Amino acid sequence: MRSSDSDRVYLARVDHLRAAAAVLVVLYHGCQLLGARIEGRALTDAAQRQHSTNPAATLVLEGHTAVALFMVLSGFIFTVGAHGRPIRYGRFVTNRLLRVYPLYLVIAVLGLATQVALPSFEHLLAVLTFTTPGQPYGGVFWTLSVELQFYLLFPLLNRLLGERGPGALLRLLGAIALLRLLVWLSSPAPEPHTSALYLGLAGRIDQFLLGMLAAWCYLRHRERLRAGWLPPAALALALGALWGFHQLRGFMSDSPLKLVWSTLEGAVWAVFVAVYVAGARDRGGAVSRAAARLGEVSYSVYLTHFMVLTVLCEDARLVGALPSLPPVWAAFALSALVALPVTVGLSFLTYHAVELPFLRLRRPYLGSSPTGAGNATPPAARGEPGAVVRS
């Protein structure tokens, strides 16, 4: 395969995964928010959270797993892109800020505008740190804070992987797991909560590290990972793990098993990412191109969908439009047929109007390879100008 064809396949497959994760986030939040609105209950009432023994329904009802997929992808993409080449730390961090901050600031400032009082200095400071109080569109802002913390660590972690090999990251994973257990055991609460760990870098660093390890395997064993049966098997493994997690009450549970769930969740998605990206040649059909275009605007989808869902939840006529369906099915139908198309349409606008102008300001952050090792990496994966506008 020519280098340009290899680049196209790599980018398309990465964007397919981004698109799938973005769609899953919209459906998950749509089912939760619209479902609660239809049933007239509080979203925080764990006892009434939607539950199912159907594996297909589990994927949507535990659709927060898309966050794990995004985080695994972050570790994977940056590790592939930086393979064999030094990272210029300042440029790398600047590029990440240009990627994350512009659209986030637009959404966060618009959220502040929904409040009656003028924003204080504390509110503006909270915007800069992704902790805006009472933010109506901020349901996913916490993930951006976690991502930025990983960005600050990635050049060091990548050097560790390059100089010491995957064993260094595996040992780091083990140490983090042990420290996380000690934090949980030292809690003074009779029933220690696991949410703080699950929603912060302390509970999510596993997923970035596993994405980096998946990239290491992909770069060295691409040919072995191209067997056609591997992606379906890896997806079945991920769905099976998610189904088991859901039967234990999933995200709302404070079971000690959640201490290891982040690692398990990251591991199954890391396997899937590696085998899917390395899989059979992409033929570039209409479905593949459409999925890739959606993946290109996935960040906009991720940040704007709460705005759309907030509006839909306030429309009593729309919420009551499907009275013959069970609440969970009505919420799913509204999410898939209304919220998702509106969000995607809005996202193409915000991508080209807000994101793209700042993405074009980024500069290459990779130095030259002293050994030529980077030549084994597809140019589109290296962060060269215009090559990975999506990362």
From TrEMBL:
One of its GO terms (molecular function) is acyltransferase activity. Residues 12-348 form the Acyltransferase domain. Its EC number is 2.3.-.-. The chain crosses the membrane at residues 58-80, 101-121, 141-161, 168-185, 197-217, 229-247, 259-278, 290-308, 328-354. Residues 370-381 have a biased composition (Low complexity). Residues 369-391 are annotated as: Disordered. The keyword Magnesium does not apply. Keywords: Acyltransferase, Membrane, Transferase, Transmembrane, Transmembrane helix. PANTHER family: ACETYLTRANSFERASE, ACYL_TRANSF_3 DOMAIN-CONTAINING PROTEIN. This is Acyltransferase family protein. It comes from Streptomyces coeruleoprunus. The lineage of its organism: Bacteria, Bacillati, Actinomycetota, Actinomycetes, Kitasatosporales.
